[in-house]
Amino acid sequence: MLRAMTPRSSQNWSRFSDFVRTPSLVRSITALLTLAFFLLLTVNVASFVMIQRTATINDSIENAQRMRRASRTVLIAMLDAETAQRGFLLTGRTDFLQPFEEARGEIAPALRLLDAGAAADPSLRPYVTRIHALADAKFGEMDKTLNLTRAGRIGQSIQLVRSGQGKRYMDELRGTITAFDTLKSTRIAERTRTSERLGVLTVAMNAIAGLLVLVLAILSAWVVRRYVAEIQRAREELDALNAGLEDTVRDRTAALTRANDEIQRFAYIVSHDLRAPLVNVMGYTSELEQAGKVIDKAIAEAETHRPVAPDVVMAVREDMPEAIGFIRASTEKMDRLINAILKLSREGRRNPLPETLDMTAMAQNIADSVHHQTEASGARILVEDLPPIESDRISMEQILGNLIDNAVKYLDAGRPGEIIVSGEEVAGGWVVYRVADNGRGIAPRDHERIFELFRRSGKQDRAGEGLGLAFVRNSVRRIGGTIDVESELGKGSTFLLKFPKRLILSEPGGVL
Amino acid sequence: MTQAVKIIMVEDDHGHAKLIEKNIRRANINNEIKHFDEGGAALDYLFSPEILANGPLLILLDLNLPDMSGTDILERVKGDDRLKRAPVVVLTTTDDKVEIQRCYDLGCNVYITKPVDYESFAGAIRQLGLFLSVMQAPEIE
After folding, report:
1. Complex ipTM, two decimals?
2. Count of other CB atoms within 10 angstroms of residue A77
3. Which tens digit of pLDDT belongs to each residue from A408-455?
4. What region holds the Response regulatory domain (chain B) (predicted)?
5. For residue B20, how far is the Cα from the chain centroid?
6. Which pLDDT score, from 0 to 100, does residue A34 have?
7. Residue B96's domain is classified under what CATH number?
8. What is the spatial distance between Cα A258 and Cα A251, in angstroms, rounded to a whole number?
9. Are A390 and A356 in contact (CB under 8 A)?
10. Which domain holds residue B86?
11. By CA distance, what is B15's nearest residue in A?
């Protein structure tokens, strides 16, 4: 499992590193977008942190303000309480003491608030402890005077005030609270400045990030634009190349067509010019024969009167007819060969005409046409379902006809002949047909030779000039196909035909 | 009075010419045969004042000539107001359909392919002789 996975992951890795190394549009865009995404994420997180921090600072500022107010409340309430104490001492009226009690009530929560603040911030503790102690001391002094007054010992009470103890407490309290207030306001100012700085920083960061994203967007747009321009250029180049290629192909095709036409024309002229002397050879051979007959008649007449030399009789009655017979047979053969070349060159001059062909029916027709031969030898031809094709009918009939004829002609007398015609479509728009027999087969060294003009293979016990397969190959090539043979001597042969599913002529009359 | 038809034979192969002549004679045609082995000389003769003065003609024409194609001669003959009535028999080795069609299009009267097989050849010439014996060649004015 691990062994199976390692190559895959390393393959993935190498694919990835290839991707990274290879400069491409996708890579550039991906990099830019990733960068922009991370930038935005960073800015977002930073903004969030900043806002949190600003909120904390603002909270602490508010808290400090509250403490400042609480300290002032203590001072003011203490002053109120002192004023009430003085009023009571002067007048002795208890209603003057109401503000004193109110002040005591106000001081208690203010002091609690300060205590809470000091608990959170140890640097405030000395101030708060001092304020607390002074407030307690001051109240202690005031309670004492009030109690003395209530007890009627007003003189002692005034004496106590006069001692300045209460005033000292009060002054010290004022001083402590002022110092506390100063400290607090300094801190508030500091924190306010920090908060403002944070705000500016956040705005600046956002602005810079926005700017960067904009730059990335412009960069991406530029990359895409450049890429599109490149594609456009490449396409134009390709178009130009294609146009050039088409021209080249057209030129080459025209040249090949010319060359082919020349060869056909050459074969045609040569075969005609070969025929003309042949007419003479045949004609004058017949003249000689006629002359021979005249001489023969003269000798026969002479023989009635006197004996004729036996070598003369021999020359006229045996040698001459024999010579004439050989000349005639050879000339006839030469005529057939020339006609074969003529036919081949004429085939080359005929224009293929593509149409949709029912190959099964065509093969069956050909099989039926040789029925009398196969029946005589006990052979059978099996035509399987063949795929249709769009090609030249005459060429196709000649090709299949020749192959089936050959298969019938060269069956092995030692076993019942079986010829199978099959075919199927293959990938790439091709059709393959096979003509397979269990006949005498072809030796490997003859596999190429049998397609050559006037060449034959194996025992020469069948009539033929060695033309059929040469015609077949010529026709196959003319309709854009190929022909191959697979054969083993003594086992049988299979001829493989491969054609384009649709014959498309590059120009009227030319397939090369 | 009607004059004997003169046979003009344009044939570069002397063997063919002789064979044709022999077979014509064997068919009992005794008309004068004038033989040319090249197209130029034949045309000069055909368009000379002598031929214009001397009665009806029949032209035996081979297509493969050394100096020109027989179809050129055919075209000239059939393009001429006086000569166009003269029957033209094309006798050649070419049996190409297109070539045959072209000859008939140009106004050839008979097209005979020279068979290599002598019997057919002789037969064809004899038939031609038969044809010549019944044919009325028009006067050339």
Report:
1. 0.73
2. 22
3. 988 888 888 899 999 999 888 899 999 999 998 898 888 888 888 778
4. 6-129
5. 11
6. 87
7. 3.40.50.2300
8. 10
9. yes
10. 6-134
11. A280
Please tell me what DSSP assigns to residue A370. T
Cβ A439 vs Cβ A407: under 8 Å: yes
Of B19, B22, B116, which is closest to A335 when you measure between CB atoms?
A: B116
Q: Which of B22, B94, B114 comes nearest A279 by C-beta?
A: B114
- On whether residue B52 sits in a domain, the answer given is yes
Question: In which residue ranges of chain A is pLDDT below 70?
Answer: 1-11, 19-23, 506-512
Q: Give SS3 for B117.
A: coil
Partners of residue B13 in chain A, C-beta under 8 Å:
276-277, 279-280
User: What's the pLDDT at A356?
Assistant: 92
Tell me what the mean pLDDT of segment B21-47 comes to. 86
**What is the C-alpha end-to-end distance of chain A, expressed in Å?**
56
- Would the pLDDT of B26 be above 60? yes
Residue A430: other Cβ atoms inside 10 A: 16
Residue B65 clears pLDDT 70, i.e. is over it: yes
* B88-98 per-position pLDDT tens digit: 888 888 777 88
Angle at alpha carbon of residue A433, lines to A432 and A436, rounded to 5°: 135
Distance CA A183, CA A502 (A): 100
Instruction: Give buried/exposed letters for A270-299 (b at 16+ CB in 10 A, else e).
Output: ebbebbbebbbbbbbbbbebeebeeeeeeb
Nearest CA in chain A to B116: A279
B116: nearest CB among A268, A279, A287: A279
CA A109/CA A170 separation, integer angstroms:
20
pLDDT at res. B132: 67
Residue B28 lies in a domain: yes
Distance from B24 to chain A by nearest Cα, in Å?
14
Is the model's pLDDT at B74 over the cut of 60?
yes
A264: helix, strand or coil: helix
- Would you say B70 and B61 are in contact if contact means Cβ atoms under 8 Å apart? yes
Question: Is residue B139 a part of any domain in this protein?
Answer: no
Tell me whether residues A276 and B121 touch, CB distance under 8 A.
Answer: no
pLDDT at A274: 82
Total domains present in chain B: 1
Q: How far apart are CA A358 and CA A97, in angstroms?
A: 130
In the three-class reduction of DSSP (H, G, I as helix; E, B as strand; rest coil), residue A420 is classed as strand
Residues 60-119 (B) with a CB less than 8 A from some CB of A:
64, 93-94, 96, 114-119
C-beta of residue A181 within 8 angstroms of C-beta of residue A67: no
Q: Which of B116, B119, B122 sits opposite A278 (nearest CB)?
A: B116
Whether B140 is in a domain gets the answer no
A424 or B49, greater pLDDT: A424
Q: Which of A361, A411, A409 is nearest to A384 (CA)?
A: A361
Number of A–B residue contacts, CB under 8 Å: 52
Structure confidence at residue A510 (pLDDT): 43
Predicted pLDDT at A4: 44
